[in-house]
Amino acid sequence: xxxxxxxxxxxxxxxxxxxxxxxxxxxxxxxxxxxxxxxxxxxxxxxxxxxxxxxxxxxxxxxxxxxxxxxxxxxxxxxxxxxxxxxxxxxxxxxxxxxxxxxxxxxxxxxxxxxxxxxxxxxxxxxxxxxxxxxxxxxxxxxxxxxxxxxxxxxxxxxxxxxxxxxxxxxxxxxxxxxxxxxxxxxxxxxxxxxxxxxxxxxxxxxxxxxxxxxxxxxxxxxxxxxxxxxxxxxxxxxxxxxxxxxxxxxxxxxxxxxxxxxxxxxxxxxxxxxxxxxx
Length: 280
What we know:
elongated
């Protein structure tokens, strides 16, 4: 019987359940067996719908006409069902092509592994222990393979210093002049602050939270379970911030004893929200 999916996890297709639990060898390559190690979308254009981990690596490094989107989807979701160390292990197995495979085909597979690593390094950052293992693979294995020495140097640069390997435009333009209250005193209140400036500061706070998000925090609905929330620290901070601001706004309004003061504060928050909407 296939293993039942845990709370918050996507169920494994029953036809692939047994294969996914096995340590399927990389070599020799196995043929595609529909429902055993791979499934295709029968209603669409026949694109791959699911596959065993080994088969996915074989497809990503084969002569098949695989669209870039397939690789992008894998890089976006692989941490949902595996980890960096296991991907590296599979790629190493794939790179070490048996002598029984024709040399031209073996060279193509090794090149495809290098291409995959290049895209992987561009899109991901790794903890130190994984970086060390990747460095050894790039320098001691790929770097000593005839014809791949130059590519090894390029991969190493991307792995160890991604900021220099990828040009990212971080210029956001000149910051607007802050709208400071005309009179500064100890009696300063919320009503003395410009709605525009309040909206700007809220936007900066939210941006700082969102830029720290990692896509893996959304996997398994980590935020919905007390036992898994540690896997989504930044997402939890965003939720906490949203709840804090919502509670602060509602609480400050209801604490006003006079209806007129409530209306005045409510109007102020609406003005802030209108400006905040422009900065979304």
